[in-house]
């Protein structure tokens, strides 16, 4: 109960209402004290008028008038003359005087609190204006004990009434919060629990219904999140099925390529100079295809395998990539160039980095070929103080805005019609495996440039 939203709201409401009543309590008690003193002045004035009407009043009647007024003596000032009208013996001397003629609110509250906290019986003098202009001044002496007891009684009744008001108010607010807030929130929680039981089921996605704007915003956000999650789970399932199919195809393709490797020895024995020159490249291509199939099978079991680090010459690797792409250029007017120092050695996995560079160059070639216009592709390699940097630049049409939103996500960053969007996702994963980063430097009408940065510290 106390840990629930409605329970805590009930407690806070009660506390705040009581606090408000306490703030009202002091002015209320001060006003009660003022009214009490004014009433004593009025009674004393009535008693004095009885004496003025008949000078021959017996001592017993005078005492009765004073007791009825609740005072010890009465002094009236009329016609600039001060007259002791009624008097009786006082138990103690006058302690202090209170002038109600020019009393301020602060002064009345201060005097009321002082009277409440001081239990000592005292005699005080009270000064005020006579009622109905029956003189210019009236003053009486009286005891503080009856006044204090009356103030305590009034204060207790005020506090009890405040408590009742607080409980009623808190109860009404409790039921209002239960109806307007707690019940809708529990409904949202129930929707979340129902959705969590089967997140792939789109029928379990929440339908916003709240009338409260803040809760409606929460339901809208929850609906959007659940919709995206359901779509992601469905896509994950499709990718898992696709991964199983790719693994099967890769298994069979690896066997076929392994058989092809057995025939490369005979090709190398050919007397044809062109065949002998191309035979090593064919062997390398088949070896890389076998390695790709093996890595694909490994990917089906886990992530991309960790890179096997060796120190190799980057220029030779890029040259192999560009030679393979030149064979694919065909009749297209596309030139490929490299700007890599001949002695630039980097530490990494040659097979994985070959795939990374090859994917970037192939994407650039296909983009330029799709325009039917001539173009250029260049690969640049530089060494900085802490990293090896490989940049692939082309003069193609640039990437569309839609492709940039999911550039490195599999099956979502495809640009070419019929493309899968796997190329850049594979490159990004391979570069991350080397502790590096893949970044799109620019992409506009003048072309596209990607940068692979491999930190030296992460590979040593």
UniProtKB/TrEMBL annotation:
TM ranges: 6-30, 158-177
PROSITE patterns for this protein: HIS_KIN
InterPro entries linked: HATPase_C_sf, HATPase_dom, His_kinase_dom, HisK_dim/P_dom, HisK_dim/P_sf, Sig_transdc_His_kin-like_C
Top class in the EC scheme: transferase
Annotated ranges, domain Histidine kinase: 248-458
One GO MF term: phosphorelay sensor kinase activity
Keywords, alphabetical: ATP-binding, Coiled coil, Kinase, Membrane, Nucleotide-binding, Phosphoprotein, Transferase, Transmembrane, Transmembrane helix, Two-component regulatory system
Catalytic activity: ATP + protein L-histidine = ADP + protein N-phospho-L-histidine
Superkingdom of this protein's organism: Bacteria
UniProt name for this protein: histidine kinase
Organism: Pseudoprimorskyibacter insulae
């Amino acid at each position: 109960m106390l840990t629930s939203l409605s329970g805590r709201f009930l407690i806070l409401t009660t506390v705040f209402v009581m606090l408000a009543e306490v703030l009202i309590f002091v002015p209320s008690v001060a006003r009660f004290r003022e009214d009490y003193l004014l009433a004593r002045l009025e009674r004393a004035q009535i008693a004095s008028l009885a004496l003025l009407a008949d000078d021959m009043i017996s001592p017993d009647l005078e005492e009765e008038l004073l007791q009825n007024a609740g005072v010890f003596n009465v002094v009236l000032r009329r016609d600039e003359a001060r007259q002791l009208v009624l008097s009786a013996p006082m138990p103690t001397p006058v302690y202090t005087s209170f002038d109600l003629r020019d009393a301020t609110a602060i002064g009345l509250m201060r005097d009321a609190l002082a009277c409440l906290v001081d239990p000592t019986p005292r005699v005080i003098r009270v000064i005020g204006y006579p009622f109905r202009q029956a003189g210019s001044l009236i003053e009486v002496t009286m005891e503080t004990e009856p006044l204090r007891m009356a103030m305590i009684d009034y204060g207790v009744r005020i506090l009890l009434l405040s408590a009742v008001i607080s409980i009623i108010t808190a109860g009404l607010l409790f039921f209002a919060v239960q109806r307007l807030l707690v019940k809708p929130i529990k409904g949202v929680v129930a929707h979340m629990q129902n959705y969590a039981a089967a997140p792939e089921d789109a029928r379990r996605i929440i339908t916003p219904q709240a009338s409260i704007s803040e809760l409606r915003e929460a339901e809208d956000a929850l609906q959007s999140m659940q919709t995206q999650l359901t779509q992601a789970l469905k896509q994950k399932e499709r990718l898992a099925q696709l991964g199983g199919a790719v693994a099967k195809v890769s298994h069979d393709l690896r066997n076929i390529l392994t058989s092809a490797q057995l025939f490369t020895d005979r090709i190398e024995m050919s007397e044809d100079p062109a065949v002998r020159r191309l035979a090593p490249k064919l062997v390398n291509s088949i070896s890389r295809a076998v390695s790709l199939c093996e890595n694909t099978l490994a990917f089906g079991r886990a992530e991309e395998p960790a890179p096997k680090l060796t120190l190799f010459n980057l220029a030779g690797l890029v040259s192999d990539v560009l030679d393979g792409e030149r064979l694919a250029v065909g009749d297209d007017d596309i030139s490929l160039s490299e700007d890599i120092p001949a002695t630039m050695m980097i530490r990494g996995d040659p097979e994985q980095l070959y795939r990374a560079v090859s994917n970037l160059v192939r994407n650039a070639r296909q983009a330029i070929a799709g325009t039917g216009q001539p173009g250029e592709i260049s690969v640049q390699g530089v060494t900085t103080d802490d990293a090896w940097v490989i940049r692939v630049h082309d003069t193609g049409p640039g990437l569309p805005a839609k492709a940039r939103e999911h550039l490195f996500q599999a099956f979502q960053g495809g640009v070419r019609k019929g493309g899968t969007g796997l190329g850049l996702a594979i490159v990004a994963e391979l570069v991350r495996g080397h502790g590096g980063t893949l970044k799109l430097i620019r992409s506009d009408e003048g072309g596209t440039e990607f940068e692979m940065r491999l930190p030296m510290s992460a590979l040593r």
